[in-house]
Amino acid sequence: MNKVLGKSKGVDLVQKWIQQSFEQGKTEAELIDTTFVFGDEIMHLIRNQVGVLEVEQKVGHVVIFRNREELGLNKNMCRACGIEHGSYKEAIECCMEMEE
Ligand SMILES: [Zn+2]
After folding, report:
1. Above 50 in pLDDT, residue 34?
2. Does 43 fall in a domain?
3. What's the CA-to-centroid distance between 74 and ligand 1, angstroms?
4. What's the CA-to-centroid distance between 41 and ligand 1, angstroms?
5. Which residues of 9-46 are buried (b: 16+ CB within 10 A; e: fewer)?
6. What is the pLDDT of residue 31?
7. Angstrom distance (rounded) from CA 44 to CA 78
8. Whole domain around residue 79: which residue ranges?
9. Is residue 100 predicted with pLDDT exceeding 60?
10. Residues 52 and 78 in one domain
């Protein structure tokens, strides 16, 4: 695969996501307006002036707020390494030393 100079890892991930979405039968219209966050990169899928799907990039300060429901879904997952555990207690103890 050819690598375009200056292309970021984030854009790479977005392009993979686009490809996977198409393979799953999604249409362009369904993908437009999707926002991606990777580290401090903010990427937004737009249709450019000539009607072609384009990844708009911004670099900024990213703050992600998660609501209770979202956190509840992964309650037993270690937030540091992502391993799922049998209980919330095990999950918070998993990578405790790495926390601070
Ligand atoms: Zn862990």
Report:
1. yes
2. yes
3. 13
4. 25
5. ebbeebeeebeebeeeeeeeeebeeeebeeeebbbebe
6. 94
7. 29
8. 68-99
9. no
10. no
Residue 2 resides in a domain: no
What token pair was written down for 58?
């911004």
Task: Calculate how far, in angstroms, residue 86's C-alpha sits from the geometric centre of ligand 1.
Answer: 13
Q: How far is the CA of 93 from the centre of ligand 1 (A)?
A: 8
Alpha helices in 1-100 (DSSP H): 9-23, 28-31, 68-73, 88-94, 96-99
Could you report the per-residue pLDDT of 37-96, keeping only the tens digit for each?
888 899 999 999 998 999 999 888 888 777 766 665 667 888 788 888 899 889 889 888
Neighbours of 91 (CB within 10 A): 20
User: Do the domain assignments include residue 1?
Assistant: no
Residues 26 and 51 in one domain: yes
Q: 91: CA distance to ligand 1 center in Å?
A: 7
CA of 88 to the centre of ligand 1 (A): 12
